């Protein structure tokens, strides 16, 4: 491969990430690493309105908030103490490639 394409990386496969992918990756990384994310701050750095762009995701978090696993205030999404072991469930709400955000939470999948 190196002889065919000098200076190119020897990569045959991969995924091209768009701006939305990068934004969501940052949100998910903050949640998974710190247990919280200031969505408005992250969105501002990407030039979008967090509340408008992620209205469906915030709505899908309502069940976790009602169950006492997550907390949302002023654009900050955080895991509560009981929700820390289930951070993946909170982060999954921001993953656009999971096609069923409207389904009820499935806690056993995250454990």
Automatic annotation (TrEMBL):
InterPro entries: HemN_C, rSAM_sf
Alphabetized Gene3D superfamilies for the sequence: 1.10.10.920
Pfam families: HemN_C
Domain HemN C-terminal: 17-86
Protein name: HemN C-terminal domain-containing protein
